[in-house]
Predict the 3D structure of the following.
Amino acid sequence: MLLKVDNVTKTFGGVHAVRNVSFSINKGETVGLIGPNGAGKTTLLNVIVGTYKADSGKIELDGNDITTKPPYKICHLGISRTYQLPQAFWDLTAIANVAVAGLCGKHRPDMSYGDAMLEASHCLELVGLFGKRNILARDLTLYELRTLGLARALATTPRLVLIDEAMAGLNPGEALRAVKLIRRLKEEYHLTIFWIEHIMKIIMEAADRVVVLNYGEKIAEGPPKEVINNPTVVEAYLGKKHA
Amino acid sequence: MVKLEHKKARLVLRLGDLKLEWAIERRYWRNPLIAVSCLLVLPLLISGRADLVSLLTMASIYACIAIPLTWQITGTSRMNFGPQLFVGVGGFTAGLLGIHAGLGPWQTLPIVILVSLACALLLSPLTIIAKGLYFSLITLLLPLIFLEITYYRSDIFRGETGISGIPHLFDLGSISLNYITGCYFSIALALLFLFIVDKVMRSRLGLYAAAINDNEDVANAVGLNTNRYKVVTFCITSEMIGIAGWLMAHYYGTFAGVTYLPLIFMIKILLMVMIGGRGQLYGAVVGAYFVAFLEYFLTGIGPVHYVVFPLILLILLFILPEGLYGLYRKHRYREYYPTIKVRRKEI
Amino acid sequence: MIGTMGMVGVYAFVLGSLYLLMSLGFSLICGVLRVFHLGYGLIFVMAVYVTWMFMENFGLGLIPAIASMCVVQCLFTLLVIYLPIVKRYIEKEELLLTSLLLVAIIIEEAANYVYPVTAGVDIPTTIVPGSIKIGAASIPNQMLIAAGIAILTTAMFIIFFLKSRSGLLMRAVSQDVRSAKLMGTSTERVYIYAMMLSIIPPTICILVMVPFWSIEPYLGWPLLHTAILVAILGGLGNLRGSIIAAYILGLIAATVSFLIDPSLVPLVSLLVVVLILIFRPQGISRSESLW
């Protein structure tokens, strides 16, 4: 078991964004996290990577408690993430963006600047951004920013990658390419993936297991085929009438 | 009809049918040796004019403050509106030790370093707690409070008149010789600071600074301990500014809070950074010399220069959005430009 | 002991009210435009020196001079502060703050050039001379009147914000500029309106304080100091927070100046503000709106 989330609760001023959620992720799995808008998916992700501190509950990585660790330490332990709204170092070139991640992602004081650049160009090549390595991040397109986010996550040599809506805003062709890319990276680097997604179809194909959140609470968990027929899930997505 | 054109790294002069061309190799301009040798020869050329030597020294000391400040603004991603606080800390430590304990400049230096470091460590949590505007406002207030204290404890700090009789940096017998050596020393210190900060900015630490300046959250998420880095940056740069204060105290032999702590001095430093090149390291150096010389030549027009000087700075701020350095390297967009940002997501 | 306590209490109230009046305009700009008006001090300087200019050089009486000064202030705020600086740099704060500081410096240096401290500026705005004894505390009448005017002005501002249409618009803009724009509010007009309104409290403040305040061209900075502290402590432009913050700072000022030393007031106030910031980074009020 790689990641174990145990009874995690996070409130914002009395509103439960995440309430008593527990689940676990095994090594090599792809786990999907779905739920309607405002279900607390991104909050849960932020709690895992340490951006928000959980109010109660426990998060373990490989048996180590990481609940109260700051984001950079959690990154060093091998969890990295991508963002729903692409985030980048906007005034840096693509390669510098990845090189920062390569230099800080693990504690590697002996790594030289040149090595980091070499590794960064390798990561960029993997995601197909090598040709744009000297373009400023602010000048990249949305698809390129999403792949840049993946390259940056990859450069920190993670074991678990949290993907936050990799498809939002992409056209169908780009979305397909992104899914293929993520699958290829998973195979090549033996990654474990925790994937928040809005588009059901993609998650049904990609995920081994799906966790469903609604109003901050876990309402279902299981293989995609089972979950999609679960009446509670259908109700959460479509309303009572369709259940 | 003489026509002078500047085309793709060549200068073309047309005089009727005659056409003269000079190729300008960019790297000649970029070669720092030229600027360095200019700075080294200049004091000898103007050695007859004590006021000009003094001005050059002043400008170099300004550069000593502007250079670390540039690093600080990038590395902490916060706009410090009170860099002169550490000039005051360094200067007063040196001055008080000089006149009361009878220590020479080289004996006060380590103590100044320790005291500045202690103050910087004390204030460094601000770079974590206070974000954006809060940080700017608190740093704006700190030196003014220090100024109040110098008035309050006039018995120690000599609020109105300042401390005088601080031992001079060099005592070589003749006054003009002292001035020239002091001038060379300040230039050497400015060059040393420039060398250090330039090396840092080109290393991985510079990349971290750029990342923090750009997006602190992402920097933290990809595994950079932003808090530690910001504290370290703040301490080192404040330290360097403190050393500039030490130099001021020992060069002039007097140190007054009224001269260095008020807002007008801060505005001068800030504008060196902004007019020079909006956070560009070399821009700050150019800006420091530019502002110092501008102020000196304006004093010629009488007391009205107190009004004209800020007015000219304001106009320059308006017409040079990228700073003086931005004029020179407009087309090279690939390299990282630090952007000074006050407001982050907060507020 | 009780005498001292009473003295501290009275002065805390009076100083708190004055601080409130000083910082009201600053908080207003901070709340509506979401920027810091670092040139706020120049409103005080202009209020004193332009009035004096009209009285001394143009031979006007006190009331006409004050009226002309108000016109000059409004024009100056619109033509020098708002249009060329605030409107242009509202997104680029480093330029905004520096230019506003520079303008303030230019104005005060100009005031100093034309009327140096030795020129003896004197504006007779004393309403009731003499002083009154409250318990053990002796306090100048003018100070009490200033405190009263401060409370009155604040009350009028609050009523304006709560009851009038323009007040509602301002509160809307302060809460969320984007939504306000979507609803068809002309933010620019609201901004100008707020800038104009923000002139009123400092002008009133310095005019009633002239008799017991030391008048010199650099008087703006300590006042800006107080305004910044009140704004930070109160939660960046929230009026409710500002009122509480002003009285907290008044209490600190009174306590420190009676029990320790008046010169330590700025230092202690700053320390307290920084300490409070550590525990409540958003200031006293958690909401980010005007009221």
Summary: Residues 76 and 159 of chain C are 27 Å apart (CA to CA). Chain C touches chain B at residues 34, 36, 38, 84, 93-95, 97-99, 101-103, 105-106, 109-110, 112-113, 221, 225, 228-229, 232, 236, 261, 263-264, 266-267, 270, 274, 277-278, 281, 288 (CB under 8 Å). The mean pLDDT of chain C is 86. The longest strand of chain C covers residues 131-134.
